[in-house]
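Can you give me the bound-state structure? Components:
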Amino acid sequence: MSEAVRTMMRMDAEAAQDASPQSDAGFLWDFWYPAARSTAIRGQKLVTAMLLEVPLVLGRTSEGKVFAMRDSCPHRGIPLSYGRLDGKVVECCYHGWRFDACSGQCVEIPSLSSQDKLKVERIFAGHYPCEERDGYVWVYMNAPGTKLPETIPAAPALTVFSDKYKITHLSCELPSHIDHGIIGLMDPAHGPFVHQSWFWRKRGSIHEKAKQFEAIPNGFRMSPHSPSTNSAPYQLLKKITGEPVTTTIDFVLPNIRTEEDRSGKMWFSSRATVTPVRRDLCRIDFVAAWNLFFLPVSIFSIFGKIFLRQDQETMIQQAEGLKHHPRLMLIDDADRPAKWYFALKANLIESRRTGAPMVHPMDGPVTLRWRS
Ligand code: FES
Ligand SMILES: [Fe+2]
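Here's the bound-state model for the whole set.
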């Protein structure tokens, strides 16, 4: 096909927009990302993780505080995770340099003699702010070569609406660039094709929907509404409480989708994050909490895993196609959330570059219509 024909075709598809991820790694720095489950970090174990292509070593001090260091000894680069933790200090396996686990500060270089003038305390291993929330260890990833800002926001927390509730966690890896992971997460049109299940919905139940969206800081909200009438679980909830079900779905940068469903005193709250591990790998971490007495964790987990597996299989297939760098399209209205995501991301990067306030891509509430 000639370049001219190709260009014409492109102009023809008026609503289309190139959805290829940016050519750089396309990571958003200076945000919290979940690095591991809390339960995986125990005793004096050193655990490895990777976020935004940064190798990390995670651990827990004897006081119970989690920490995250760059998994690389500042001396000769061997991963610190091959060393050991004594509850407070991480010791490198190569020459035994010792680093305070929470600050990364070097506290001892065993080879130094009494003649040496090297100021040990001026040497630091890379380290990152680290917090535990909702059963995850979160790490604040400031951009390479930058100092941490004076104040950093608190790590994200799942909203809950009562003291007593059940909670569960699921996760799966996607062989995809973060942008594909995220637009897959917010994509309303794949449901009837990818998530066909007797317990959820059938392909034949596809129908036209109109949903209102509004701008929120760093993201957008599907305004509170009654959820899809073709989804069995929502129908059940309504029957039990005898009150309408209201759903609110938010997306906020860098990677968070939350959904809150409420009906009378009953509630269900979930959060999915898509975290960039490498440029060709991301991970969905899904946490859900609820006080619905009729929904045991075991049953929810079975269905949740089926759901995630369906998305994962699709993304594995998509990755096969993306290897050949095809041109991609984003259409209106079903792909509008994806367009907002790309615009939010670009505008945030621009505002950080210039120091000017971030421009929000939405200038008011919008109703989107699609069939699903
Ligand atoms: S490489 Fe770690 S102490 Fe030498
Ligand atoms: Fe999905």
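A couple of observations. Residues 1-18 have pLDDT under 50 and may be disordered. The chain is about 20% helix and 30% strand.
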